[in-house]
Amino acid sequence: MKNTITITMDADKLSALTMYMEQKNISAEDELAKFAEQLYQKNVPQNVRDFIEMTAKQQSDRKLKKKKNSGENGVIAADVSRFGE
Fold first, then answer.
1. Which of 19, 58, 66, 79 has the lowest tally of Cβ within 10 angstroms?
2. What is the pTM of this model?
């Protein structure tokens, strides 16, 4: 699950930042996401990051397994109206 962080910035500064970043073909959102990841890496202990990663992988594996199993037990629909002819 992803959450959103909202920041405030002076409108003129944001406009200038956007203009110059567009010239370099980069986006403020991408740069902020990179910075947020750096903050996470810097401030969250390694063992906690490992636990979060392990938990996310388990959840992903469960979803994948559930999706795979639902295909095996799914209902198959067919047009049987022509069989009586």
1. 79
2. 0.64
Q: Is residue 5 part of a domain?
A: no
Q: Which of 43, 64, 42, 46 is nearest to 54 (CA)?
A: 46
- What pLDDT does residue 73 have? 55
What token pair was written down for 12?
A: 């003129």
Helices 28-43/11-23 angle, 10° precision: 100
> Is 35 among the domain residues?
yes
DSSP 66: H
Overall number of domains in the chain: 1
Residue 33: which domain range?
11-71
Taken in order 51, 55, 58, 64, the sign of the CA dihedral is negative
